Amino acid sequence: MRVKNTICCAMLTLACIVALHTSGYPQSPCKNVGITRAVITPTFVEVVLGLGVTTKDNLDQVNRWRIIRLSPGVDANPPVISRVDVKQSIPAGSGNSFYIDLHYDGAFEPKKTYIVAVDDISFDGCKPGKEAFVATSYNPSSTPSPPPVQASQYDLAKAADRSKADIYLFGSIEGLRTGKALKTVDLKVQLPFAASVFQKDNLLIPYLDLKFSSNPKADTDSLNIGAILRSGTSISDKGLVRGVVWDLDGRIEGNKNLKFTNGVVANRFSFTTRPGDWCNGSCYLYVQPFIGFEVGRNMRTPVTEAEKQTIARPLAGATAYLGFAIKKPLLDTISFQSEYIRRWSLTSEVGVEKAGDNYIPVFAGRGPRDYVQTKLEFGFSDYVGFAIGHTYGSLPPNFKLIDHKYSVGLTFKSLIMKRPK
């Protein structure tokens, strides 16, 4: 009965998303393809793109870029782009930003304004049909200082939801059908690095993922520590499915104090779909289904019943995001976010539960295990918002059922962009 309720919840979530697709989102993918920052240094121009583009844009080609003087006058030795370095490349469909260094010959005249431009860039096959540019100024000093890009190796950027964020924190007060309200934490921290493994421009992503509540009746008690090797492949610029992102995930999963841990290796294939924009730039709908398989073995347990147990779990699910543009003081966006995952345990798994000062086995058994989390979020800014959430289902390693948990609290979410050295 609970499984049927969960499936109905997931179907209702997707039905709500489709039904509301005529409303708004903070940013249209087409309208925001472009340069968000360009800084001239003594040796190169650092360019930051606001949204990730596909490899088909060929932004590493010199002839794609132009530097145009905007101030009156003529340069005696005008700057000419000689080399383009893409410092961080993002898999197709991730909706991320990245940095590009434009190395140049010649010189910028001091205290003059220039335009850095690139023609016909796209996002997931979306053609903006306009030139993307930004005006910059160059103000040298008598003693050259290090380029501003060297001040910090990392920068923050806007993220849509938990599935796409590198830093995510949801601190809330939760309630159950019975019992008093207590505190809960949903934390995700990951740091992506460029890695040339299997193919060029992959990402290596060490991460920590924690879900914890002080209410034992609503405690998912799920802690994951590991690393993901991520690679993306574009399929088509047309149609619903635009690309596939492959995550090879090696992790330790356990309870919050790691008294019980499993070693797990997982493969997950996420299908990036065409972003929906039906409201002339004021709405955005994104659905990303995925499938995968997890295998592993118990590494540590306080109960003999779980010793050396094996793990084999096929999985499937989807994440969905529907956003509305508000652009008012203290209310930037309103978004509806949902994540659904079903795991099928092919082996009889055993978890643990604390009873006083001791632990007792929890026989999760075989069969499907569902988990669905839905949030209605009111974004105050690019990073901070207020969310109302609902959770139902169970997560490994204990697969303890969370029976319709409701919570309200503050969220912080952000991408971490590695800047050029």
Molecular structure report:
The structure is a single chain. The protein is mainly beta. Helix content is 4%, strand content 56%. It contains one helix and 21 strands. The strands form three sheets. Strands 9-10-12-13-14-15-16-17-18-19-20-21 form a twelve-stranded antiparallel beta barrel. A four-stranded antiparallel sheet has the order 1-2-5-4, with no helix packed on it. It has a three-stranded antiparallel sheet with strand order 3-6-7, with no helix packed on it.
Mean model confidence by pLDDT:
78
> Which range does the strand content fall in?
over 45%
Uncertain parts: 1-29, 90-95, 140-151
Helix content: under 10%
How many strands, what sense, and barrel or not for the largest sheet? 12 strands, antiparallel, barrel
Give the strand line-up of the largest sheet: 9-10-12-13-14-15-16-17-18-19-20-21
DSSP helical segment count:
1
Tell me the distance between the termini: 55 Å
Structure class: mainly beta
Radius of gyration: 24 Å
What shape does the CA trace take? Answer: elongated
| Quantity of strands, as a count | 21
Order of helices and strands: HEEEEEEEEEEEEEEEEEEEEE
